[in-house]
Structure formats: C-alpha cells, structure tokens
Amino acid sequence: MSNKEDKQINTEYAVSLLEQLKCFYDQQLLTDIVLIAESTEFPCHKMVLATCSSYFRAMFMSGLSESKQTHVHLQNVDAPTLQIIIRYAYTGNLAINDSTVEQLYETSSFLQVETVSQRCREYLIKKINAENCVRLLSFADLYSCEELKICAKRMVEHKFTAVYHQDAFLQLSHDLLIDILSSDNLNVEKEETVREAAMVWLEYDTESRSQYLSSVLGQIRIDALSEVTQRAWFQGLPPNDKSVVVQGLYKSMPKFFKPRLGMTKEEMLIFTEASSESPRSSFCAVCYSPQAEKVYKLRNPPGDLQRVGTLVTPDNDIYIAGGQVPLKAPISNNSKASKLQAAYRPVNCFYLFDAQQNIWVPKSPMLCARNRPSLVCCEGYIYAIGGDSVGGEMNKRTVERYNCETDEWTLVTPLPCAWQWNAAVAVEDYIYVMAHNLTFCYCPRTDSWVEMAARQTSRCFASAAAFGDKIFYIGGLHIGNNSGIRIPSSTVDGSSVTVEVYDVMKNEWKVATNIPAKRYSDPCVRAVVVLNCLCVFMRDTHMNEKPKYAIYQYNMELDQWILRQSISERVLWDLGKDFRCTMGKLYPSCLEESLWKPPPSLFSQDRADEFELDGDVVALPLNS
Fold this sequence. Notes:
With 624 residues, the protein is α+β, with helices and mostly antiparallel strands.
C-alpha cells in the first residue's frame, strides 16, 4: 500500500466554516474586538480580520499595547465602506459599483486588504473611458496605483483632444501635466492642440501657475507648429515676463522634432476574417493603407473567433462583437450539415482595439450571443442589431445598446422583422436598417421603428454606407420575386454593379449609376468612406482567373464611378470570399508590416524558388 496521504480539500466544509463565522458575526457571538468608524461599532473576531488584512494582522500580533485593545477607532474610514470590507472578510462576497469603488479602494489600501484592492483596480481599469480617465489618472497617482495610472494615462493620450477642456484636466498637478504634454503618444494631428492645452491649464490659475510657465511651455514642440501659429505667438508680444520666457524658448528649441503618435495616423482599410480560404478559419485581421500601399497585421483577439461584427466609431474607436467559436468536441450526427453546425457556438463577446498596443481589450459582453451583428454608432451609443443569434426568430430581431461610459448593455425595441442578414447605417441621429427591399428607421429618442420607402430591387448581402444625408446600397445578391433564386447583383452582361441611393430628407430610393466593374464574386463589394470620399473596395473575379482588388470613387455631381486605385497582387493577397471591410485611422509604427506572400496556387510543382505572376517570372520573397 502507498504511504501517500490523501489531501483532497473538502470544499463543503470550507463553505460551512464561512457560514458559521458569518453566523457568529451576525449574532455577535465570541467576538473579541470592536472596530469603530464614524461612531458606528462593528463587533468582530480578531482571527478573521487578521486573516484578510495585513494591517490588522500586524496590529493584533505586534505584542504592543494596541494588540490588547478591545476597541479600535479607525480614522478617515467611513462606516458603509468598512461594513463592505468586513462582510467580505466573513463571506468572500464583494459588492462593487461605480459609487463605492473609489472609496472602497482607498479604505482597502489603508487596511491592506489586497484582494479587495485588486478587485477595485480591475473594476476601475475596465471602466476607464474618455469622461473619467483624467480624474482616474489623478486618483491613481494619489494612491500610487501604477497599473491603474498606466491605463488611465493611455486613455488620456488617446482621447487628448476631447479631455483637455475637462475640469479634471484643469486641476491636474504640475507633474502629471508635464508627464502628459511630454508624451510621444499623444493622439493629436497638430501640435497646436498641445499648445492650446498648455495655455488652458496655465490660464486656469494664472497667479499660482506662473512659476510653471517655462516648464509647461517647454513641452511644446515649437517647430511642429505651423508658420502662421509661430508668427502669431512669438511676434508682437507685449514686453513682460511671459513674452521673455516664450521668446527664449523659441530661440533655444532645436530645429527638429519627433512627431506625436497622432501625427503619424493613416486612414486604412481594415479587413476582418481576411485570408480565409477555409470557411472554418478563425478571426484574422489585416489593414491596407491606400496612401502607402502597404499591408499591416492586427493582433488576433483571444479565442478562436470568426463571423464577428465590426465597427469604427466617429471617434475612431474600433470594436468587434459577437461571432462564433469552435467547440472542443463536435457533436456527432448522421447529417453532415448538423455536424458542421454543432461544431460551433455563437458568443456574445465584445472587444475594443487598443491601437497603441495593437491588442484587443475585452469589454462587457453583449446580452445576446449572435453571429455577425450589424454594429452602428448613434448619439454616442453603440447598437448591436440582429445577426444569427440563438433562440429562433425573436432573438434574430433583438437589438441592444452599449453605453461607453458605464460599459453596460441594455435591450431596446426589437426589429420589426427577422433577417439572417441586414445592413445598418446611422444618419442624422437615426439608424436605418436594410434587407431585401425593406428599409426601417430607428429613433433612439422614442425607442421606436418606422418602415420607410421600399427599394426597387430585392437584394441581400449588399454593402451600405452613409455619405452626407444619402445612404448608398451597393452590390449584393438579387432575390427573385417568384423563385427566390439569388443571382449576382449586376447587369445582364455581368459588367457592372447595382447601386441604389436613399435620400433621407425625401424618403426616396433611386437607382444610381452602376459601378463599371467586370464580373465579380458576391458579396465582395464593400462601401467605405476614404479621405472624405465615398468609395467601394471590390474583388473582381474573372472566369478562371485569380481575384484582383480595386477601389472605385463616386463623383456625386456627375453621378459617376471612377477607378481610384487598382491594388496589385504583389501588395494584397487573396482575402478570400467572406471578408468584411471598414475604414479607420491607425498608427503604422504600432503595427507589424505584413510582407506579401504569393498564394499557394502560384507555386510551381517542383517547389522551385520562382513562380509566374502576371506573365512574369518572380523570385520568392526571402521571408516566405
């Protein structure tokens, strides 16, 4: 027989022990210490307090006079917060919300209850947004919480143009202000924004902050300012201490500067589920810069996601939502289709892309699991609309709204109809959802849907984009009125792509000029706005030929589509047939450049180091 002891933990006993301790606390049985906060007494057990708090452990085990006290007065600790910590000590349950978390962190740090402090830090980090990031930066600095401070500062840098007018920014300490203004990672397109922020802070309390004039203005990269700004700022100043400091700084500044991160932003086409030759491929995202003609990689989110919804907000925040993940053990079934369906499950995950770190940050999950929901930003809220959700027709109609400030989802009025697919855009504080030949408008203020004018054609899998007060509905598959057969949305000879335009003010649809592209593979037509111009990114697929990509631009006055850019296969490889496309501004220096690699179909049978491309013999890239 083995001499090894069986050391299995009896979890039922552990739970029972906690319950007994809580019972003793509630009935004040065998208590041996009384904590007093704001004249409120809390009879407790020293052993329990010492178990969870280093502060009380040191107090009760020091051997000094404090260890023999029967009553302990806690200064600067409020009674409700102390009660939360005591309840946690006896139960392990911790209730945190927006109104209690900061005071709870302060008290738990003082009492050295590290598990509570850690939970509070995690809660605050998850709740950081543009409205509270400056205040949380000061809070983290005050209590030396480095993890929270780093995250809050990163948000301040990202949302700098929106936060420097806030009261919390005006009340920043001098050291924190210098730390921010000196950062290379400020998301500003012009140095004038940094200059204005510095002046706003100085002028908030001119008398007491005049001593910081030189150190604050010294963070401005003067040669990054426009010549107009430099002349207006440095010439004709009245002869006073301020002008002497400013002019001295100007003369001493070097004639070069490192651009802030925001000055390096480029508009890029972001492709999700790209390079997906297999229908089972996981989430893959790349981005393409039309200006530089370069391709970059985006980090994959945690898990094995696919079929996500994608959104870039007007503030250039990038989100993905929902999708599906493979099951570890597919359920066996006689039907091949059932096997494939059983091998995946829809999820309700929701991620924000941190462009500076090239990572996906998890946010509060949606209330419903759904594949490829339509994501729309309207009046500062994010809406997740429809998608292939679980639970039948009603769940496919569900619509939920995300509050970026509170990191919370709430259900709103569902769609009038259930579709497996829809396109949605926001125009003038209203949301328009289109599928088949139907159009519905959602008013956030009344939480109601209204059916609008119907389109002339019935199409699905089309791409939609808002441009001004017009909505463009492009491409897709025609649905026959009688047979229900889906055919590519193109003219009879297959040489153009259908475009319909909705006038929001007139509630009218009209057919616009088709896009003069050759045969293409639906649904690979994506409407995007590039440099304030309405464009489409298209996959042209000729018979028995490799796919090629192009960007067409729309001329509103002439009602014409013009080829804006053909994209060489040497730059952008095969994205597959099921990619999604949107437009956002990203930092090339924070991304990994993705060098072109030829599709497998181009390689010769003998695996030589050369292959044929467009009639030319090309050598393999060195990193292939």
